[in-house]
Each structure stands twice: as structure tokens, then as C-alpha cells.
Amino acid sequence: MAEAPTDTPWMIEADGLCKYYGDFAAAEAISLNVPVGQVCAFLGPNGAGKSTTMKMLTGYLSPNAGTAKIAGHDVHRDRINAAQRLGYLPENGPLYSEMTPHAFLNYVGQARMLSGDRLQARLEWVREQCSLGDVWGKAIGKLSRGYRQRVGMAQALLHDPDVLILDEPTSGLDPNQVHGVRELITTLGETKTVLLSTHILQEVHAVCSRVVMINEGRLVFDGPTDELGQQSDAMEQKFRELTVAA
Q1: I need a labelling partner for 109 at 20 to 30 A (CA). Which of 69, 126, 223, 243 fits?
Q2: What is the distance between the alpha carbons of residues 177 and 149, in angstroms, rounded to a whole number?
Q3: Domains of the chain, first to last
Q4: Among residues 109, 171, 99, which one has the least CA distance to residue 140?
Q5: Using an 8 Å Cβ cutoff, are 114 and 121 in contact?
Q6: DSSP H stretches of helix in the chain
Q7: What's the start-to-end Cα distance of the chain, in Å?
Q8: What is the mean pLDDT of each run of 10 residues along the chain (246 residues)?
Q9: What does each C-alpha distance from 172 to 11, 78, 89, 145, 175 come to in angstroms?
Q10: 3-state SS class at 191
């Protein structure tokens, strides 16, 4: 695995990221830094620019202006090293419907240069952590949305990345599965850097120490979770105040 540059304390960096579609600003002047060992929520209403920003942070979408770095590596100029440090769960990640989770994750692992005992150990770990044992040999196309989401989470975790960017990681999961994913994210956040988007404010209280909020493509809040309120109701009220249309 590539080493992070030693001159940066930040594992996720965005500096003035902008994305325009004609006259429409999907994201404008987005700047944030996330250190190691922090679980940061990325909140905003539908269409606020969350997924667009996450795609720019991961290198899946080129910005019109600004830069993004993962573990000190520019995601466009140093894409390979950045990708080695990053695990990304997109909103609707591409999965090969005819493949089984085992076959798909084995393929992903080989693409990420895992092999032999190391690959097998990581496959066993994600199968256990993402609760995929019951569907390990079933076609992905025949799985429920919740199981497909867990396969997506498994591919993000497979190569043991230092940085995780997760777009709606508990979408489609039942309450027991949600609890398991929250516990996993909390554990991972002790040593890794996690940026996650969610619409579930209870989830933010459960796993996140910091909140970054976006509305109409611009940052409107960046601070400790407790600044938005100690309870979900208070956080919901603050969310509405910050994101209501002008």
C-alpha cells in the first residue's frame, strides 16, 4: 500500500471544489479537511450536491475548479495512489448481477492487486463483517436491495483502505442490519477516516463526531455534532433552519 505524504495531517482534503452544469452550480467552493480517526457526516437535502461532491472527492467526477486529495494524494494527478488509500461506496454502485458476491469480490480484490492468502483473508473478513455468508454463492441480481448494499460495502472495505467515503451506507437495510453497520463504522472510525452521507439524523448521533452540511451546492455548516443539538428532534430543527429554501 502506498504511503501517505508525511507533511499532511488530513486524510480527506477539498479546496474550492466547484461543479457546474451550464448555469447550474451543483457544488460551489466546497472546502473541508477531515483528519485520521474521525467519522464525519455529510448532510443536506436531496439535490443539495452531496453525491456530486463525493464523486469529486473520489476522483469519479472532474471538478470545474478546485482540488481534492486523499491521504495527501491528488485524486486526479496521483489517482492510483489515492485509490489505494480509498474505499468508496457510491449511491448506486455498479454490481455485476450475474456474479455471486464471492466471485465479484474476488474479482475486485484481484483488480486491487490482492492475491493468495491476503486476498482470502480479506474475503473472509468482509463476508463476516458485512453478513454475506447466507448469500455468498447466490447471484447478485437475485439479492434484495439490502444485500446488494452490503456487497457494495464489502467492496469498499475489501482492500483495508485508510479512508472511507460512504454514500447512504445503510440505505435499504433492516433495523438489525443498520445496527450492525453502525457498529462497524464506529469501530472503523477508531483508526480510519470516514465521510458518510445519510438522511437518518439518528445515525449521525450514533456514529459521527462532526457534521458538514451542504445546501444548494454550498457549505452551510461545519462543526461538532453536538452543536446541532443533543437529540434528533433538535438536530432536525437545525437542519431545517439551515437548508430551507430562501
Answers
A1: 69
A2: 11
A3: 33-243 (3.40.50.300)
A4: 99
A5: no
A6: 50-58, 79-85, 101-111, 116-129, 145-157, 175-188, 201-207, 232-243
A7: 47
A8: 58 97 95 95 93 95 96 94 94 86 97 96 96 96 91 95 94 86 90 92 90 95 89 84 75
A9: 29, 34, 14, 6, 10
A10: coil
